[in-house]
Amino acid sequence: MAFWVYVLKCSDGSYYTGQTDNLEHRLSQHGAGFGSDYTRRRQPVALVFNECFGTRDEALRAERQIKNWSRAKKEALFAHDWDKLRELARPRVAPPSLVVARDERNEMEAADL
Q: Which domains can be identified in the chain, with CATH numbers?
């Protein structure tokens, strides 16, 4: 059985991410206003991304991951812009003041041991 992760672009420009084991049926539900309260209030919706997975657990993990991504990262995925996606996936560098404060805190905690 196949499990799908999909992303819809709503009429207000927002994205809705979901997962299902019957993509065609789920898309028709969203289109008819029965898919979710979120998409019902933002009709019409259009499919911008979908990917098939072998298990529901894999699809659920991918859904959660994509839901937590920034808009820019989602749009890089939709565009298959792997360089941009990789760039957006890099961890942000903490400002030097935070790094120093964290290092000092770690040294104090180590001294207490």
A: 1-68 (3.40.1440.10), 70-113 (no CATH)
